[in-house]
Amino acid sequence: MPGSGPKRVGLFVTCLVDFIRPTVGFAAIKLLEDAGCLVDVPLQSCCGQPAFNSGDRRTARELAEQVIDAFASYDYVVAPSGSCAGQLKRHYPELFHGDPNWLPKADAFAAKTFELVSFLVDELGVDKVDARFQGVVTYHDSCSSLREMGIRAQPRKLLASVEGLALEEMHDRDVCCGFGGTFCVKYPDISDMIVGKKASNIAATGADTLLAGDLGCLMNMAGKLQREGLPVKVRHVAEVLAGMTDEPPIGEARPEPEKPRA
After folding, report:
1. I need a labelling partner for 85 at 20 to 30 A (CA). Which of 10, 17, 29, 169 fits?
2. Residue ranges of the domains in the chain?
3. Parallel, antiparallel, or unpaired: how do β-strands 233-236 and 163-167 relate?
């Protein structure tokens, strides 16, 4: 691993952040640069997780080869998503099992890949951020972040340093929200039942804001909260840690600008 100089980080933006919530990417860059990293965003493709989860190993492998090549020159690869980070770190070596040419590349790539908040805390030793957020929040531990990447204490450690923020834990905070990538499409009724229970647990905390580290989970929960008429705002944890909360909460439209008077 790199020495004591500035860490060259390649940010893996993720598809959802790129197309749905670019603010999360900008927040990730700010957090990494504040921690002394040199950050770049190379041209990149999907991590291949949808294909992988659907059993299309050929497509998943083709995408993995593109990603590995795109990030070959960086000291670290960091993603603001436990789900995508889990695919990159845990499943890329699996895709190339038995391949003498690509497996060493996949193993080296996996070794330098991290989820954003765990990278800040576990690799860089960051224990506080310079941010303010007035309100009560609750935090959802997404499945991939928790079970594939071991992320539980790290976001809470940094949130404890945010001025004005109070954390209220929900019941079953580590239970699935029902998104599960393509699961919510294949089994919509089951997914809706699961997220319904999650929405009730979120509302029961009395928190005014829900946070998590995976945008897919956040979008799923935001949609259910809105359909149920529950007044809970939804944000990616990176936005709060970076103090970048000017963007409307997830699922809420930006107000239309006032039309000039005739």
Report:
1. 169
2. 8-122, 127-241
3. unpaired
